[in-house]
Design a protein that fits this description.
The protein is α/β, with parallel strands linked by helices. It has 14 helices and 17 strands. The protein has three domains: 147 residues, Rossmann fold (3-Layer(aba) Sandwich), CATH 3.40.50.720; 163 residues, Dihydrodipicolinate Reductase, domain 2, CATH 3.30.360.10; 82 residues, ACT domain (Alpha-Beta Plaits, 2-Layer Sandwich). Strand 4, helix 4 and strand 5 form a beta-alpha-beta unit. Bound molecules: L-homoserine.
Length: 429
């Protein structure tokens, strides 16, 4: 074993960073044996230098992250500060000063992954980011390496723990969205500003990363269709139950049936209770991958939290250190397929539509005609009437999102349709 240590700079020492530092210390001998050289924490960049950090030598702590990544003797920079800046500049500087990078930064990778990969390649460095998607769950490496000989057709998953906690609470207790969010906040699952999670931004960033790797195609954050889950109601859950379904916020990346394009989207959807994703409870994540040769694979586990995310960071750190010792770099960006990313209108799926209508002769026929005129075939209709008003639940066969939108617009223009109470996609069948 080489005795000269590989030097690691840690950018950020919050929930994840402190766990990375702890595991590097407590598992130092095992890590050295697995890598073939010791790894040494050479510096820790933080915002609040006076905070007491158990197990971290105070002489390693600095507020000057730029100076740390510019030192020139750092082998690997571990970036766990998140956000776009200063993370992007620090990673760029690290590459230019001889270091490879391990990052947990989904927002940055989704937005600037291509440019960062290009710079890493130009400089002969590694850029690894297993922790950016679904915490501890191995997904990036299985997609990039284990399935490199297969053809992935679909990635379907729950990649945000906060929203899964909220939806699970609504499902199991009948609570409304706000009540379930309040509980998630009180328990520390939801942040004080939950926008990134509940509006689907976090999941969309992860979907962009997964789709890019799965389909060897550049998928930008803007390419991902996104709907949050703040409008899901207790009534939607009641409707879902009647259909033998539950509701999950899903990230769905698909290759079109003809193989010529891909789509990526994040939105709430009904899935049958028999689908394995339906039983993913609390803040857990799970991702289904469907490939030509492998068939269906499911990855399940904790998608957030200090130690689980640190597990993924450490796995990358070991891989990058091994590459460094062997004088190689690991697999880089792969976007050779260059498949176009189709807009949401071209996505084909089933829909559950809940309408408030007048309860009088001919209304059902009128509604059915609108569906027919837009080429959307109805699978089931359920009606419940009371005092001249009725609620009508229509479940369609597979149709394009564009056809469904046209249908709903036309329904809204019918005098007999008082309102469209909810529209939800039905997935996983
Ligand atoms: N906020 C995310 C979640 C974890 O709730 O799953 C970090 O991506």
């Amino acid at each position: 074993m080489r005795t000269r240590p590989l030097k690691v700079a840690l950018l950020g020492c919050g929930v994840v960073g402190s766990e990375v530092a702890r595991i590097m210390t407590t598992h130092a001998d095992d890590l050295a044996a697995r890598i073939g050289a010791p790894v040494e924490l050479a510096g820790v960049a933080v915002r609040r230098p006076t905070k007491v950090r158990e197990g971290i030598d105070p002489s390693l702590v600095t507020t000057d992250a730029t100076a740390l990544v510019k030192r020139g003797d750092i082998d690997v920079v571990v970036e766990v500060i998140g956000g776009i800046e200063p993370a992007r500049s620090l990673i760029t500087t690290a590459f230019e000063h001889g270091a490879s990078v391990v990052s947990a930064n989904k927002a940055l990778l989704a937005q600037d992954g291509a440019a960062l990969h290009a710079l890493a390649e130009e400089q002969g460095r590694d850029l690894y980011y297993e922790a950016a998607v679904a915490g501890a769950i191995p997904l990036i490496r299985p997609l990039r390496e284990s399935l490199a000989g297969d053809k992935v057709n679909r990635v379907l998953g729950i990649v945000n723990g906060t929203t899964n906690f909220i939806l699970d609470k609504m499902d199991s207790t009948g609570a409304g969205y706000q009540e379930a969010l309040d509980e998630a906040t009180a328990l520390g699952y939801a942040e004080a500003d939950p926008t990134a999670d509940v509006e689907g931004f976090d999941a969309a960033a992860k979907a962009a990363i997964l789709a890019g790797i799965a389909f060897h195609t550049r998928v930008r954050l803007d390419d991902v269709y996104r709907e949050g889950m703040t409008e899901v109601t207790a009534a939607d859950f009641a409707s879902a139950k009647e259909m033998g379904c539950t509701i999950k916020l899903l990230a769905i990346c698909e290759r079109a049936a003809d193989g010529g394009s891909v789509t990526a989207r994040v939105h709430p959807a009904m899935i049958p209770l028999s689908h394995p994703l339906a039983s993913v409870r609390g803040a857990y994540n799970a991702v289904f991958v469907e490939s030509d040769a492998s068939g269906q694979l499911m990855f399940y586990g904790p998608g957030a939290g200090g130690a689980p995310t640190a597990s993924a960071v450490l796995g990358d750190l070991v891989a990058v250190c091994r590459n460094k010792l062997s004088g190689a770099t690991g697999p880089g960006d792969s976007a050779y397929a260059q498949l176009p990313v189709s807009p949401m209108g071209e996505v084909v799926t089933r829909y559950h539509i809940s309408l408030d209508v007048a309860d009088k002769p001919g209304v059902l026929a009128q509604v059915a005609t609108v569906f027919a005129e837009h080429g959307v075939s109805i699978d089931t209709v359920r009606q419940q009437g009371k005092d001249g008003e009725a609620s009508l639940v229509v479940v369609t066969h597979r149709a394009s999102d564009a056809s469904l939108n046209g249908t709903v617009e036309a329904l809204r223009n019918l005098d007999t349709v008082r309102g469209v109470a909810s529209i939800m996609r039905v997935e996983g069948e």
